[in-house]
Amino acid sequence: MKLKLVTMALATALTAGSAVAQELVLPWMSYRTGPYAVGGIPLADGYTDYFTLLNERDGGINGVPVRLVNCETGYNTEKGVECYESTKGEGALVYQPLSTGITYQLIPKATADGIPIHSMGYGRTSAANGKVFKNVFNYPTNYWQAASVAVNYLLDENGGDLSGKTIALVYHNSAYGKEPIRTLEELSKKHGFNLSLLAVDHPGQEQKSQWLQIRRERPDYVLMWGWGVMNQVAIQEAANIRFPMENFIGVWWSGAEADVIPAGDAANGYKALAMNGVGTNFPIFDDIQKYVVDRGLAAGAGDQIGTVLYNRTIYAAFLAAEAIKTAMEIHGTKDITPEMMRDGMEALNITEAKMAAAGMPGFGPEFQVSCENHGGPGLGAVQQWDASTGTWSLITDFMEPDSEVINALIEEDSMAYAAENNIELRCN
Amino acid sequence: MFYREAGDFSTSYKEDSQTFPIRFDRYRYYVVLVVAFLVVPFVITDYWANAVFVPFLIYAIAAIGLNILTGYCGQVSLGTGGFMAVGAYAVYKLMTGFPDVSIVIHIIGAGFITAGVCILFGLPSLRIKGFYLAVATLAAQFFLVWLFNRVAWFYNYSASGQINAPEREVLGIVVTGPNTEAWAQYMISLVFVTACALLARNLTRGKLGRQWMSIRDMDIAAEIIGVNPLSAKLSAFAISGFFIGISGALFFAVYLGAVEVGEAFGINKSFLVLFMIIIGGLGSIFGSFAGAAFLVLMPVLLKNILVGQFGWATDLAVHIEFIIVGALIVIFLIIEPHGLAQLWRLAKEKLRLWPFPH
Amino acid sequence: MPDQVLFAMEAAINGLMAGVLYALVALGFVLIFKSSGIFNYAQGVFALFAALTLVGIMEGQVPFQHLINAIFGTELHGFGWETPAILAVVLTVGVMVVLAIAVERLILRHLVNQPDIILFMATIGLAYFMEGFGDLMWGADIKKLDVGLPQGGSFWIEENTAWLGGDGFYGFFIDRLDIVATIAAAILVIGLTAFSQFTKQGRALRAVADDHQAALSVGISLRFIWVLVWSIAGIVALVAGIMWGSKSGVQFSLSLIALKALPVLMLGGFTSIPGAIVGGLIIGMGEKLFEFLIGAPFLGGATENWFAYVLALLFLVFRPQGLFGDKIIERV
Question: For tag attachment on chain B, is the N or C end more exposed, with fewer CB atoms within 10 Å?
Fold first, then answer.
């Protein structure tokens, strides 16, 4: 204990000197290298560009400039730990680890350090239960809700009846890929469809067995939970066996330009889930062009603007900025701490007006975060690829998941975690 | 000058056969121990513990384990990642199954379980040799990862398939879980490293070590002079597995706190530890430490220089980091093909003669 | 015939095709190991580098554009021309030859007469280097590789085999890319065999493979042979890179195909070119059949990765030097 006091005193002595200029520190654990660089590059660019825009256009958030601390993880858990430790001392407000593995890693650590984590559409699904996970947020949606949205979409397509149909799930054989299985099993009981599971081992360059099985069994629909090279190969193999692309739906990590482009025209009609708007048809992109690209400040090569994954982290950055504003409002100060940031995230209320003010009207659904619910309503849409124009477009509105089924699962898993780690429930 | 045997007289057999027969070596060793145990814990910060010291110490244990098998006994293994996973999952099952028993016993237990698994996958070594043996250990690597991913019992049927280390104490000090102090994390790793290194050092100097080395140098000849290849090879697999299991257990429980098997213990880990012992020096305990230090510290150091000092873009820095590490490996090899340990030995030779080299 | 049998046949045929693709990667390893005793860990990275270079040349990318842009603040994105596939392939072969010369000059020359493990380690360093260098040179984003190879299932085969089974059988599925890969592999093997049998350099190569010192003593230049072998391995890597890259696009993961070649190598023997092909076929067919018969129905799938090694292990227990490897003779 004494030791901690000494180190804390040292740390404050060291940081006191530098904390003169007011700024908002946001660590950014991105990956532009390694096996998942293909997805990581647009993700990294979007977040960076959004805050560059805020700094250039508005001088930051409510006048306080944002300082992004880049840290390259290479999607590697150990490097993620190094990144966390090297940035947390700088007054980091919120971590977005961009990797399910690193998120799991950081959940206990960041909770102990009192720094919030926002894992948007990845990470631990049951962290949506704010009663157990005080510092972890995964709004607006998560994998289980994604599976349910996909099934709801198929229900709509089939006039509300899926009984007797077969849905195959092609998944990355890892914790991430196995996420939707429980939900889909529950839903298959409820709606009477058959579920067929096909695991693809990492990295997924060779999927002939799985796709031959799909060709034999002829499922009505195929869902995919893939990431990295597995996506490109799966879409190519689906095209090879001439599986109808409009019956093939990927999760939001399996639906970027990079996933469909290698398959060329054959990928036309492929669908994927979406949690945010696609394309550059939003006022914010004019501003990005004007304040960021034209001034030569674009992150990376600047060639990713408007792609699916770029827009996703634009959205993540927007949510972070809104949470910062909310935190400033609640606490009436411009110098916010991670604890205040956490309160801001918990009180986050995204309205159409706020999105329009940020230049992103209709970019995502309206939602509200609460003490109990850190996961948001879980609305998701479906997007479709048009190979001739090379664009994704949303083909549905944001749809509700089957909350009844999902909430029961979230409750069960988070309570197990609480019991295992002796966590007291909050929000009573 | 001061580093030489001259004037260092042994008056008993015990003194003659001690680990560090040269006085200067002995003092250096004591100084390192004193610094490691009595100085570092008081100045260590979270960053230094998590980014540098703890991974270095844990990889050093794994490297010692693999060095026993590959460096001393000559059996190439590419299953280290899988065996570390056995240690991690064993300690997880023990921790959650017997919460009242001390974590130290659990970690040692994980070592024994891994030793058992290692013996099983070591059986083909009696027939297959050289690079071909790597296939048996690779089979272990891929099969074990698949198994831990597939069978829900190993991760206590959690929905995510990840395992999380619950909080455990040693002598009233929290050593696992998120509330661990940096120095506690460091100390428990250090205690295990010291114990393992001592054990390994003395095993390799003894009868067992000589048997291993005779098998490595030529197994038929060793058999003729009365070394039982079955017991020698399998004991190497078992003891190597014991160390690797301990390192896997620490890697999960103390260092990361939460792991997913495919990501944390994939084939890359096997290669990484193998690179460590080759770069450090095969058949050398010091080499295990040197190799682990090189591959853990070098990237962190380069990153901090390139990004922290020069302010380069992080991705360019990583690419250049790869280029530099690769080039350094090749340059080291051209200068000294037998690893960092040989450089150290040469330095000592030079020191003995200094300042009169002829 | 009952459908189940036909499905098993289909799995087996596709396994053989996949095996050819594995063998393509394994060939590069065998060539280098045979002539210089080096286990070239960097072979997978070579395939990635070759494919990256090919795409880069085809699309007229400026090498090191990110680095140049970062240092000089320029906005380079490409030369603005596209190179035809054939010319790009020829240029890429040239780059691989230059690479081979560089490897010989900078690494191998300094490590003559060192133990195998040291040379293995040098290739580890090389692999690290090339990983960073390739990404730095051509960028880490995904690139579509289209050299005009056909892709997708063959209609013709499908239609003409559908009558074999009942309603549930739609004819055999065979990917046209796999057929091309098989032809390419056949040409490569025939070419290599012819080269090593009927040309002076080829005979020199075999002599070196047999005995370094004897070859040296009759006046064969080891250095030239090494450059030659590494160049050929580079070309083989290019072919493998094209085949795999057509499926997945060219990206970092391409370097991981080396993992698929390891069981093939061990099964076929490190020193045999026919071994690589036969090993690839056995591994490919074995893992696909196992997945079809046992893995997917009973074990929950994704068994291929480890089963390939278990299969290789089973063969090795009976033939410890691999199917076609040199017999291990031990003398005391």
Answer: C
The two tokens of residue C59 are 């699309």
Residue that terminates a domain, selected from A377, A402, A422: A377
How many contacts, defined by CB atoms under 8 Å, are there between A and B?
Answer: 116
B234 HSE (CA, 13 A, CB side) = 13
Q: What is the mean pLDDT of chain A?
A: 86
Name the burial class of residue A195, with classes exposed (0-12), middle (13-18) and buried (19+) by CB atoms within 10 angstroms of its CB.
middle
Q: C125 CB near a chain A CB, below 8 Å?
A: no
Domain assignment present for residue A396? The answer is no
Put simply, the answer to whether B278 touches C124 (Cβ < 8 Å) is yes
Asked if the structure places residue B291 within a domain, the reply is no
Mutate to test the interface with B, among A10, A36, A72 (most CBs of B within 10 A): A72
Whether A162 and A191 map to the same domain: the answer is yes
Has residue A6 been placed in a domain?
A: no
Residues of chain C with pLDDT under 70: 1, 332
- Contact criterion met (CB < 8 Å) for A417 and B260: no
Q: Which residue has the tokens 């398939």?
A: B161
Q: Is residue A406 part of a domain?
A: no
Q: How many domains in chain A?
A: 2
pLDDT in tens, chain B (358 residues): 566 666 677 788 877 777 777 777 788 888 888 888 888 888 888 888 888 899 999 999 999 999 999 889 888 888 999 999 999 999 999 988 888 888 899 999 999 999 999 999 988 888 888 778 887 888 899 999 999 988 888 888 877 778 888 888 888 888 887 777 888 889 899 999 999 999 998 898 888 999 999 988 888 888 899 888 889 999 999 999 999 999 999 999 988 888 888 888 988 899 889 888 888 888 888 889 999 998 888 888 888 888 777 777 777 888 888 888 889 888 888 887 777 888 888 888 887 777 776 6
Q: How far is C25 from chain B (nearest CA, A)?
A: 17
Q: How many CA atoms lie within 13 A of C281 on its CB side?
A: 10
- Determine the structural domain holding residue A254 and report its residue range: 143-274
Facing residue for C330 by CB, picked from B220, B312, B324: B220
**Residues of chain B with C-beta less than 8 angstroms from the C-beta of C321:** 132
Considering only CB atoms, A3 lies closest to which of B183, B264, B313, namely B183
Instruction: Find the domain containing B60 and state its range.
Output: 23-266
The chains found to touch A (3+ Cβ pairs under 8 angstroms) are B, C
Report if residue B315 sits inside a domain: no
Whether residues A364 and A306 fall in one domain: yes
Looking at the structure, tell me whether residues A152 and A231 fall in a common domain. yes
- Please spell the DSSP secondary structure of C229-295, one letter per residue: HHHHHHHHHHHHHHHHHHHH-BSGGGGGGHHHHHHHHHHH-TT-HHHHHHHHHHHHHHHHHHIIIII
Chain B contact set for C312 (CB, 8 A): 135, 139
Is residue A66 classed as helix, strand or coil in its secondary structure? strand
Return the residue of A nearest to B300 by Cα: A82
Residue B220: inside a domain, yes or no? yes
- Do residues A247 and A310 both lie within one domain? no
Q: Which chain B positions have a beta carbon within 8 Å of A126's beta carbon?
A: 159-160
**Claim to verify: residue A112 and residue A62 sit in the same structural domain:** yes
- Residue A110 has what pLDDT? 87
| Cα three-residue angle B78-B80-B81, rounded to 5 degrees | 105
In a domain, A97, yes or no: yes
A99 and A162 part of one domain: no
Report the domain count for chain B: 1
CATH of the domain at A259: 3.40.50.2300
CA dihedral A179, A182, A187, A190 (to 10 degrees): -170
Does residue B318 sit within a domain? no
- Listed residue (B25, B44, B29) closest to B197, CA to CA: B29
